[in-house]
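thread: overnight batch results

M.L. [08:02]
morning all. the overnight job finished for the chain we discussed friday. pasting input first so we're all looking at the same thing
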Amino acid sequence: MNTARVAEWQTCLPAGRREGLKIMHYVYVLSSLKRKYIYVGLTNDVERRVAQHQKGRERTTAPYRPFQLLLVEKYSTRPDARKREKYLKSGTGKEWIKQKYRAE
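M.L. [08:03]
and the structure it wrote out:
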């Protein structure tokens, strides 16, 4: 099998199954500038993802635009990033976010 073709094929795999590729995963937190709303997400491209939210391309966040990016955390594995995302989406995690950014 041609190695160039294998590399091309691997990039088409879902994010959690891209073995051999060094893709970083990011957990991010957005805060609505108009309403009392915090959104926590996971992506491999923060700039692209935040732009999607700002443009209203996401049904869950469109009514809350515009946003301020509060936090970005970098992880080398998707499972680690997912674990942190789940925590930040929990009641305890949301309280942590509110306390951390209320003081700043």
